């Protein structure tokens, strides 16, 4: 009888320990993502306020600031439900948290499938908005930083090709400045050369006179 009671106590202790570990893990996970969601939301709001000065992109959903705001709201609300559910041991909130995570995963899967099914339309849509962004490339710092990063990392130039940069008033061939018929430096092929008098002269040439890649 005493042995049976001891085994029962051990089982209850193990169950309680597992429950506390699971609860602590869920609270920690939810709290971290809750705070992260709030931070992403704050950054998105700040970026959107700055973006309103230069409305470059036709579709708001292509703007990085809008994407950050949407992502921040979703992360903040979903994680808040998880924190509240784990703190209050509310079964209904835990179920809601599980269902919301499942719905988010399903939406991501559907979005990926839709992007593959309509990839040609998606590419045309993105290229059109890139061309619109190129018009105000030097005025929209948000778009400029992203475009420079993409062109440097993926070694590309423009949306479809380098000709897209003719949409910009400074790079159009009819422009009077030194950037006419050229492209931004992020489009250019950079080669390591020995620093000599002639190479220093080359480095001092205007950006528009640099070679570019397709």
Low-confidence stretches: 194-214
Q: What are the secondary-structure elements, in order, as H or E?
A: HHHHHH
User: How does the major sheet shape up?
Assistant: none
User: What is the number of helices?
Assistant: 6
Number of strands: 0
Mean pLDDT comes to 77
Explain this structure.
With 214 residues, the protein is mainly alpha-helical. Helices cover 65% and strands 0% of the residues. The chain is built from six helices and no strands. It has helices at 2-51, 64-88, 91-117, 119-135, 141-154, 197-203. Helix 1 (2-51) packs antiparallel against helix 2 (64-88) and helix 2 runs antiparallel to helix 3 (91-117). The longest helix is centred in the first third of the chain and has 50 residues, at 2-51. Mean pLDDT is 77; it is low at 194-214.
Features:
single chain, 214 residues, mainly alpha
List the helices and strands and how they pair.
Blueprint: H1 2-51, H2 64-88, H3 91-117, H4 119-135, H5 141-154, H6 197-203
Helix pairs in contact: 1-2, 2-3
GO biological process, one term: protein maturation
Subcellular location: Cell membrane; Late endosome membrane; Membrane
GO molecular function: enzyme binding
């Amino acid at each position: 009888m005493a042995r049976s009671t001891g085994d029962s106590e051990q089982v209850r202790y193990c169950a309680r320990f597992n429950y506390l570990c699971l609860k602590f893990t869920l609270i920690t996970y939810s709290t971290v993502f809750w705070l992260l969601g709030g931070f992403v939301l704050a950054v998105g709001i700040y970026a959107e306020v700055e973006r309103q000065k230069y409305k470059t992109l036709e579709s708001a959903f292509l703007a990085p600031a809008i994407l950050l705001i949407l992502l921040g709201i979703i992360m903040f609300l979903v994680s808040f439900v998880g924190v509240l559910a784990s703190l209050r041991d509310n079964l209904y909130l835990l179920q809601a948290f599980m269902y919301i995570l499942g719905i988010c995963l399903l939406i991501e899967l559907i979005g990926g499938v839709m992007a593959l099914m309509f990839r040609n339309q998606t590419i045309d849509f993105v290229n059109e908005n890139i061309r619109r962004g190129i018009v105000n490339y030097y005025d929209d710092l948000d778009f400029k930083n992203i475009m420079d990063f993409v062109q440097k990392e993926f070694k590309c130039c423009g949306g479809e090709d380098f000709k897209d940069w003719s949409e910009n008033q400074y790079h159009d061939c009819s422009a009077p400045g030194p950037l006419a018929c050229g492209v931004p430096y992020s489009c250019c092929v950079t080669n390591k050369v020995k620093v000599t008098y002639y190479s220093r002269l080359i480095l001092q040439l205007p950006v528009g006179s640099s070679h570019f890649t397709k």
